[in-house]
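Quick one, probably user error.
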């Protein structure tokens, strides 16, 4: 589409608009369900998935919804979880991290793990699936990996500063794993481990 002499790629434009507005809808507390994780699953997974299938007429597999290179994915998952277990054993002991995650897990550890898993599945799909693979078509993977980490980082506002500030690097790392494996599943597993391990350390 061309507007005033400027050509716009409609698919990429829609991806960028959704990647901007959906976190704002979430941030401003617009709810459909009584559990926030279910709202996020709707915003960050269902909406992009419908756009891919119905509007783009493409396959979810082309946006990382598959196992991909599972051997490399398994290696990244084991290495990532092991490395973050060590890092978080120090970082998660900070007072602001303990205070935030103790409050977050007030309803119970396993319920928090369940809801975080639903939440993070959708988060990883929109950033490391929908945005990453769409943007890479026009920018190449290098720039796409960093670009998708930007809204991901801002979506962490309200969490402890050290966690939010690190997300540009963590998000890019997750993006690299997703691109290498052609799947958002492995960043999802690593991310779920990070959240669960941090919550557990804050509680003990």
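Nope, works fine. Designed sequence:
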């Amino acid at each position: 589409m061309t507007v005033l002499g400027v050509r716009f790629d409609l698919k990429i434009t829609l991806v960028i608009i959704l990647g901007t507005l959906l976190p704002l809808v979430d941030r401003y507390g617009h709810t459909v369900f009584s559990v926030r994780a279910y709202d996020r699953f709707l915003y960050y997974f269902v909406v992009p998935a419908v756009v891919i299938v119905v509007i783009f007429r493409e396959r979810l597999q082309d946006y990382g919804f598959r196992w991909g290179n599972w051997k490399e994915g398994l290696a990244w998952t084991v290495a990532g979880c092991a490395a973050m277990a060590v890092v978080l054993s120090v970082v998660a002991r900070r007072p602001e991290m303990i205070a935030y995650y103790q409050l977050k897990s007030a309803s119970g550890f396993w319920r928090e793990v369940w809801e975080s898993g639903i939440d993070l599945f959708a988060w990883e799909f929109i950033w490391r699936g929908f945005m990453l693979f769409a943007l890479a078509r026009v920018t190449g993977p290098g720039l796409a990996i960093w670009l998708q980490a930007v809204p991901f980082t801002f979506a962490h506002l309200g969490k402890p500063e050290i966690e939010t500030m690190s997300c540009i690097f963590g998000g890019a790392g997750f993006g690299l794993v997703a691109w290498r494996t052609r799947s958002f599943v492995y960043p999802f597993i690593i991310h779920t481990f990070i959240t669960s391990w941090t919550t557990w350390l804050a509680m003990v």
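Residues 2-203 form one domain.
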